[in-house]
Amino acid sequence: MRKKITKAAAIIIALSFAATAIYYYLPQPRQEVEAPHDNIVAFQPDRDTNEILDIFKKDRYWLVSSDNYSPEFMLQNRAPNKEDARYFGKLNIKVLYEMDKFVGFIAYYMKNFFIGTILFIDVKSEFRGKGYAQQLMQHAIADLKKQGASMVTLVTRTSNESAQKLYKRLGFRVAHEDDGYVYFEIRP
Hints:
Elements: H1 2-25, E1 40-42, H2 45-63, H3 71-77, E2 92-98, E3 101-110, E4 115-123, H4 132-146, E5 151-157, H5 161-169, E6 173-178, E7 181-186
Parallel strand pairs: 4-5
Antiparallel strand pairs: 1-2, 2-3, 3-4, 5-7, 6-7
Helix pairs in contact: 2-3
């Protein structure tokens, strides 16, 4: 009897590892989620690429920590980076428009079954201070929760005080600080 229980447990563990591997290494169907705000829509390369690349040119210091980061690669491959193939095609990119004007964008993905990560959020300077970043954040958190996230994480520079105020207002807490960066998390 003991051998049967041990064998059954081993099979269950092996199947859970197999399911994890399938989730990470096989392309997953993209599920678009209805935006809580009509002005947040899915990224369309022809319409939005130049706007997002322009934001990266102006705010690169605040968005990335490496001079080698390629926003073009991120947009073309819907991937957070070039190094980790398991996330290729899994990055959700949403854009916010107000009266047909591009306001900003947010990019996020499921890092694993339970943790969602907000990779980028930025609003054009002329639209800041009007609640648009909060709308984008709320949309991403709700979408990640629908995808199964029990925790959402993000990172920002320690000097980005306005972003930190927003994250804290939304319920994020500081997980830790390291080498000029603050790591936030929330359990939605």
